[in-house]
């Protein structure tokens, strides 16, 4: 039993290190293809490292830290994700995306992942096809980058929103507000997240699914705790949580900034809907 636990712990540590390496590489603005010659591994090996399926030697970890201009100790040691405080999770500055990523987002929203081509993405980005391929080996890499960015941002915002609540009802309200605001302000990313999960390939799909479940579990945990305390009275807490999250994630399907409702107004409505779904006593 102890051996199995150790193996699980080691796998978790590899996966966490892989996420930190991916985040550091992306902050530096490097693609895998650009990074691996400097680190001295193949594209396949580095992909396995970032996804927690392979170990990285100390020497190569130090090389990666120098290449990504990040602190080696911060890569080795798990640190909590930065938490936005004082309501910063409600702030949505304009997205700043590299041209190929912005072109991919535009194409995937308009014609879908399978309906778009690298040439189409290049045209929207104002680049040549070769210019896109130089940084992004495949269209799949662009989709993965968009969904990783989406889920990393959403999870961080949800953690910050949840931390501001006092008790399960208030924490649920903050989570619903956060989810509604995100899927209105970042409706294009939310649309891709809902419509293109089927287009993700493994092992990326499993990682994104796990991130989505993490958000779902935050809502489930607060509703379950609310029911335990008698602050909510739904007899079906898991189903209610699924309904609440689905309400918010479906916003990109219909909400428009020209429709008369601000994201903040929608969020207030959805908080009321959520309270009714989980049967918070009036």
Q: What are the SSEs and their pairings?
A:
Blueprint: H1 2-28, H2 32-39, H3 43-50, H4 58-67, H5 72-76, H6 99-111, H7 118-125, H8 129-135, H9 139-163, H10 168-185, H11 187-195, H12 204-229, H13 237-249, H14 263-277
Helix pairs in contact: 6-7, 6-9, 6-11, 7-8, 9-10, 9-12, 10-11, 10-12, 10-13, 10-14, 12-13, 13-14
Brief description of this entry?
With 282 residues, the chain is mainly α. The protein has helices spanning 2-28, 32-39, 43-50, 58-67, 72-76, 99-111, 118-125, 129-135, 139-163, 168-185, 187-195, 204-229, 237-249, 263-277. The termini are far apart.
Describe the structure.
Helix content is 68%, strand content 0%. The chain is mainly α and 282 residues long. The chain has two domains: 75 residues, 434 Repressor (Amino-terminal Domain); 138 residues, Tetracycline Repressor, domain 2 (Orthogonal Bundle). About 2% of the residues have low confidence.
The CATH topology of the largest domain, please? Answer: Tetracycline Repressor, domain 2
Low-confidence stretches: 79-85
CATH superfamily of the largest domain: Tetracycline Repressor, domain 2
Task: Give the overall form.
Answer: globular
**Proportion of strand residues:** under 5%
CATH class of the largest domain: Mainly Alpha
Determine Rg (CA atoms, Å). 20 Å
Number of strands: 0
**Structural class computed from helices and strand pairing:** mainly alpha
Oligomer: single chain
Mean pLDDT across every amino acid position: 89
Helix and strand string, N-terminal first?
A: HHHHHHHHHHHHHH
The largest pleated sheet is described as: none
- What count of domains describes the coordinates? 2
Q: Which architecture of the largest domain does the CATH hierarchy give at level 2?
A: Orthogonal Bundle
Helix content: 55-70%
Q: With helices defined by DSSP (H or I, 4 residues minimum), what is the helix count? A: 14
């Amino acid at each position: 039993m102890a051996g199995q636990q150790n193996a699980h712990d080691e796998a978790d540590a590899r996966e966490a290190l892989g996420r930190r390496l991916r985040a550091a590489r992306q902050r530096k603005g490097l693609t895998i293809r650009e990074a691996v010659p400097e680190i001295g591994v193949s594209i396949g090996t580095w992909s396995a490292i970032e996804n927690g399926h392979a170990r990285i030697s100390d020497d190569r970890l130090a090389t990666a830290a120098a290449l990504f201009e990040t602190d080696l100790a911060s890569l080795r040691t798990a640190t909590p994700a930065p938490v936005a405080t004082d309501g910063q999770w409600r702030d949505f500055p304009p997205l700043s995306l590299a041209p190929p990523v912005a072109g991919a987002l535009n194409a995937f929203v308009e014609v879908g992942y399978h309906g778009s081509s690298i040439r189409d993405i290049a045209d929207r980005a104002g680049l040549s096809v070769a210019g896109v391929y130089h940084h992004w080996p495949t269209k799949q890499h662009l989709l993965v980058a968009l969904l990783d960015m989406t889920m990393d941002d959403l999870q961080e915002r949800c953690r910050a929103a949840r931390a501001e609540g006092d008790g399960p009802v208030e924490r649920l309200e903050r989570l619903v507000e956060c989810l509604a605001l995100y899927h209105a302000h970042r409706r294009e990313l939310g649309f891709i997240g809902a419509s293109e999960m089927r287009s993700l390939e493994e092992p990326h799909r499993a990682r994104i699914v796990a991130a989505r479940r993490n958000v779902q579990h935050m809502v489930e945990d607060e509703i379950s705790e609310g029911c335990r305390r008698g602050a909510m009275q739904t007899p079906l807490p898991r189903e209610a949580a699924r309904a609440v999250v689905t309400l918010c994630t479906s916003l990109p399907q219909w909400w428009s900034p020209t429709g008369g409702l601000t994201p903040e107004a929608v969020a207030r409505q959805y908080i009321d809907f959520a309270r009714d779904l989980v049967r918070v006593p009036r």
